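=== RUN LOG ===
request id: a7f3
mode: sequence -> structure
chains: 1
length: 111
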Amino acid sequence: MQHQPTAPAPYAIAFSIEELILVRSWATQKKLRLFVSTDQVLDGAEFEEVLVIVPQGREQRNLTLWRTPTTVFAQLPQGRPRAFATMKDALEALRPAQTRASWRRMLRLPE
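=== RESULT ===
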C-alpha cells in the first residue's frame, strides 16, 4: 500500500451559499459588480474562493473578501485586511465613498 501525501489545508475556504446570496444582494443594491474567483494561490497560500467587488464600468479591483473557518476578511487595494466575525458584520462595516474623487477607492472601511 502506497502512502499518499496529504495536501495542506487551504488558507481560505469557500463561502456558504447564504453568504454568497447576501454579498450578491448587497453588491446589486450598491450598483457594484461581484466576481467569484476559485482555486487561487496568492503568496503561497491556497484560497478555495475569493470574492472581488468592483464598481460598474471599471476593471480595477476595489474590494477583496475571503474567509477562514472562523473569520471573514475584507481588504482594499494597498490596504491591510480587516477581520470580521461574519459576512453580515463585514458588509455592515463597508461604506460607499461619499465623494466623486473617491471613485478610485469606491469602498472604504471605517477607521
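=== NOTES ===
The longest strand covers residues 32-42.
The mean pLDDT is 77.
=== END ===
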